[in-house]
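Action item from last week, closing it out:
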Amino acid sequence: MNNLLGDYEPQSDSLEGNVSFEGFSHQVIANCFDRLSNKKSAGMDGLSGFFIKKKFKIILIPFLKDLFDKIIRSNSIPTLWKIAKMTPVHKKGSKNETYINGLE
């Protein structure tokens, strides 16, 4: 379980104000797995949605429930979740032409 959370430690274990949070249900997380697209490319981990749904859904649900509950209660998102992999996709025109801010 330690590797799943990395070095993430919640800043606090309570919500601010008078808001009550009962936590995520296993069913809500299972429904999110079911909605993963089989046609999308793999993420930075190299695992496709199809593979994750079929092989890891049952194993990951309790760990993800605990992780999401801690994130909501701490009001803090792990820094690693804020990193994205971006790949430019050529749309039209010659690939040999370079445009910067719309100027040739």
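Closing note: The CA atoms of residues 46 and 87 lie 15 Å apart.
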